[in-house]
Automatic annotation (TrEMBL):
One of its GO terms (molecular function) is ligand-gated monoatomic ion channel activity. Residues 34-257 form the Ionotropic glutamate receptor C-terminal domain. This is Amino acid ABC transporter substrate-binding protein, PAAT family. Residues 34-258 form the Solute-binding protein family 3/N-terminal domain. The keyword Signal applies. GO terms for cellular component: cell envelope; membrane. PROSITE patterns: SBP_BACTERIAL_3.
Length: 265
């Protein structure tokens, strides 16, 4: 009996130690006093760098509200998008908050919160292709050249749904858009919120925005597998801000107004 109790207590001790050793991201952030979020600040209007060098945007404001609800400071860790998951898995930051689409492939490596917004892939095409290209299906020909940002669902969709066209990806969105503006590519494949801004900001009257999304893409926060306490906190936070007016205020600031464009270079 004594031997049984001894083993039982040992098991409890090991379980408690393991639980403490695997504290969730939110608990870690509260203890540290800082929520560290990995982000590639190139995705208008979700996260971008203004002319003062500050990272601003729709998702940034949601994360600021989240950090405030936790009573901690927000620290944004600028990370290239194509390396953001490996950097996260090696402990560089607590979570991913970088306009990341919740895909089944990514879900095998990460846990995701509930979506904070749903977007879809759209097209920016050369002005002289207006009327000829009416949907992504019309681009599925080897005579066309597509661009997007490497490591994003824009790249995935281009290679999967428009696979016959030639593809060249870039490390940032603006290079891809400028390829179309300068006539070096026929279309840029990317999320609708970015494309609607890019057409106005860098389109120079040489682009046509085909605004009808042709994919379904929920954007969510990425966490480590098994971190259910953090998922619980973040999901409850998202429910709270959706129902107390905070989410609508933040959303309208970035999607129903263009005032923020004055802060960009």
């Amino acid at each position: 009996m004594k031997k049984y109790l001894s083993r039982l207590m040992l098991g409890v001790t090991v379980l408690v130690a393991a639980t403490a050793a695997h504290a969730g991201a939110i608990d870690d952030a509260v203890k540290r006093g800082t929520l560290k979020v990995g982000m590639d600040p190139t995705y208008m209007p979700f996260e971008m760098t203004d002319k003062r060098g500050e990272i601003i945007g729709f998702e940034v404001d949601i994360l600021k509200a989240m950090a405030k609800s936790m009573g901690v400071k927000l620290e944004l860790v600028s990370t290239g998008y194509d390396g953001i998951i490996p950097a996260f898995l090696t402990g560089k930051f607590d979570m991913i908050g970088s306009g990341m689409t919740l895909t089944q492939e990514r879900n095998l490596r990460l846990n995701f919160s509930e979506p904070f917004i749903v977007v879809g892939q759209t097209l920016l095409i050369r002005k002289d292709l207006e009327g000829t290209i009416k949907s992504y299906k019309d681009l599925n020909d080897e005579k066309y050249r597509l661009t997007s940002k490497l490591g994003t669902t824009g790249e995935m969709v281009a290679k999967k749904l428009i696979s016959k066209a030639k593809y060249h990806g870039y490390d940032n969105e603006q290079e891809g858009v400028l390829d179309v503006v300068n006539g070096k590519a026929d279309a840029f494949v990317y999320d609708a919120p970015y494309n609607v801004v890019a057409e106005k900001k860098v389109g120079s009257g040489k682009l046509v925005f085909l605004e009808e999304p042709f994919t379904f893409e929920p954007l969510a926060f990425g966490l480590k597998k098994g971190d259910y306490d953090s998922l619980n906190y973040i999901n409850n936070f998202l429910h709270q801000i959706r129902n107390d007016g905070t989410y609508d205020r933040i959303h309208d600031k970035w999607f129903k107004s263009s005032e923020w464009l004055k802060d960009m270079e």
